[in-house]
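Form P-L/3: holo structure prediction, ligand magnesium ion.
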Amino acid sequence: MNLTSIGADIQLAAKLLEKGSLVAIPTETVYGLAANGLNEMAVAKIFKAKNRPYFDPLILHVANLDMAQQVAEFSTLALKLAEQFWPGPLTLILPKKKIVPSLVTSGLDSVAVRIPANEIALSLIVACGFPLAAPSANPFGYLSPTTSEHVVNNLGKKIDYILEGGTTKIGIESTIVDLTQEPKILRLGGLEVTKLQSVLPQLTIAQEKENNPMAPGQLEQHYSPNTKLILFSDSVELENRITQQDALVTYLKMDLENLTNFYCYLTDNVENDAQAAANLFKTLHYLDALPCKTIYFQLAPEEGLGLAINDRLRRAAAKFHKP
Ligand code: TXA
Ligand code: MG
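OUTPUT (holo model):
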C-alpha cells in the first residue's frame, strides 16, 4: 500500500517542497495542494495530480507583503486592500513579475496572490522562503477539502505529505478580486462583498460571461459531489418528492420527523453564515459517502456569505440539472 503520510512536521514539509514534491497544506479557507511556486517542474505536478486543465491558473500563497511584491506589481489600491484584508480569504489578481513561471499563470500577464490567515501555512511559507502555488486540494471539479481526511480520500496517493491542520475555519475558498482592470470580483468567497465594498465602493461582481475562461473556478459545473444534488429554496417544494433514501440539508435546523434518514442542517442561527459556510463542503463530503440517492440541499439567504454558499451550490448542482 502506498499511503501518504499525514503529520505536523513543518520542517519536513518545507524540505519536500524545496526538492519539488507536492504537500497538501491547511489554510483558513480550504486545504491547498502546494508546490514551490517558482519551480515549473513542481508546479506541473499539481496539474497532473488534480487532473486540472493547464488553462486554469494557480494562486501564489505568500507570508508577507515583501514576498507578495516579489511576484506581483502592487498599485496603491492593491496595497490598500492588502493592508485591510491580509492575512485573510482575499486573492488579488495583479500584474505579474517575470520571476513567476508562466505555467502558474497559464500564460496570463497577471498573477493571483494571497496571504492566508493560517499559522501553519504561514510558518511553512516562511520556512520555505518561496511562494507556494496551491489550488484547492481536490480532483478537478470535485468538492473542495476542508479536512485532511477529505484530502487523503480524494488525492491521497498523489501527494507526498499532508500537513495536518484540523478542520479549516472558513470552509469556502477565498474571494478573488481582479485589479488589473476596473476592480471586479471574479469569484465570491470567504470575504463578504459588503466588507470589500466598504473599502472599495465601486467594486462590482463580474458577470458569468465576462470572466470565463479567465477564472475557470467560475466554470458553470464545479465543486460537484458524485451523488445527484438538487437545490431548493422553500421546504414546501419538497413535499411528495423526497423519500427515506434521499438526503436532506436545510439551512436552519427544522423539525421534520420521519422525512429522511439522512438529515443535516448548516447552522442553528440564521445570522451565523460563517458556521453555514464552514459546514457546506463538510456536509456534502459526508453525504456523498453515504448510500443516499439524491441530496436535496436548501439554498442560503442571499446575503453575506450566503452569496458564496449559493454560488458553490449552484455550480455543484449544475451537472445534475436537466436542460
Ligand atoms: O481559498 C482559496 O483560494 C484556495 C486556498 C487553497 O488558497 N485556493 C483555491 O485555488 O481556491 P483554486 O485553484 O481552486 O482556485 C483559484 C482560482 C481559479 O478559478 C483560477 O482560475 C483563478 O483563481 N485565477 C488564478 N490566477 C488567475 C488570474 N491570473 N486571472 C484570473 N483568475 C485567476
Ligand atoms: Mg478549486
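COMMENT: The pocket of magnesium ion (ligand 2) is lined by residues 135-136, 144, 217 (CB under 6 Å).
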